[in-house]
Write a structure and sequence with these properties.
- Belongs to the distal-less homeobox family.
- GO terms for molecular function: DNA-binding transcription factor activity, RNA polymerase II-specific; RNA polymerase II cis-regulatory region sequence-specific DNA binding.
- It is found in: Nucleus.
- By secondary structure, the chain is mainly alpha-helical.
- It has a domain of 30 residues.
- Helix content is 45%, strand content 0%.
- The protein has five helices and no strands.
- α3 crosses α4.
- It is globular, with a radius of gyration of 22 Å.
- The relative contact order is 0.08.
Length: 130
């Protein structure tokens, strides 16, 4: 049976190999150190990514698109990224962050102030808020 003959391969099928009892001794990383997302293969240290500075034209286009469509398909993200000279990941991340900003705004606003909050956030893009 595959389970009994390949006990060394069992850890690759577990959701979190750091917590697997089979991978503790063969893991190149210390067992006590939790794994965090994507790490660099050498030493587990990654240089911090710099913040993307969007131009006013890019922000205006992103905001206009967000007002009409909160979620984009992967193909729509690719098309918008190409049109704006941005990467797929930048556009995807901008939309994710913008949806969370909208959610926070709605959560902290009173029901009567929600429309005003939406108008302010959508119409007045602040350079430090995006």
């Amino acid at each position: 049976s595959p389970a009994s003959s390949s006990s060394g391969n069992f850890s690759q099928f577990t959701p979190d190999s750091a917590t697997s009892p089979h991978s503790a001794s063969s893991s190149p990383q210390p067992a006590a150190e939790p794994q965090k997302g994507r790490e660099d293969g050498v030493g587990g240290v990654r240089k911090a990514k710099s913040r993307t500075a969007f131009s006013q034209e890019q922000l205006q286009t992103l905001h206009q698109r967000f007002q009409s469509q909160k979620y984009l398909s992967p193909q729509q993200i690719r098309e918008l990224a190409a049109a704006l000279g941005l990467t797929y990941k930048q556009v995807k991340t901008w939309f994710q962050n913008r949806r969370m900003k909208l959610k926070r705004c709605q959560k902290h606003s009173l029901w009567g102030e929600r429309a005003q909050c939406l108008m302010q956030v959508g119409a007045q893009p602040g350079p430090s808020l995006d």
